[in-house]
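Write out the bound-state structure for zinc ion.
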Amino acid sequence: MKPKCLECHTPLLGRSDKKFCDNLCRTAHHNKIQHRENIEIRKTISILTKNRSILKQIFESGETIVSLKYIEIKGFRKEYFTQFHMVNDKMGAKHCFDYSYIEIEEGVIQIAQLVAKTEQV
Ligand SMILES: [Zn+2]
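---
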């Protein structure tokens, strides 16, 4: 079977390791892959951004202890976070950019704002 261009499916002539008929097809193919990957990345960033804004909004309201159910109703998705680390041998903190939370008891979280360390000049 003759190999075909990965982009336009035209049978390829010449070298057996050729994947595309020309640079236009090669570029079009790579752009499509990049486009699909960018969509995936943007979806995740958008979920993380929404999570951060929910944590920020609640934190700024002065209420730092809330139920997970309450923030999930607002659209928070707990499976998305930017960092995780153990606070002690039982509890882990999940970060969402500059906000973090720990589950202090089943279904109840405490939100904190992470303060950036200012560089000493
Ligand atoms: Zn082609």
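---
The chain has two helices and five strands.
The chain has a mean pLDDT of 94.
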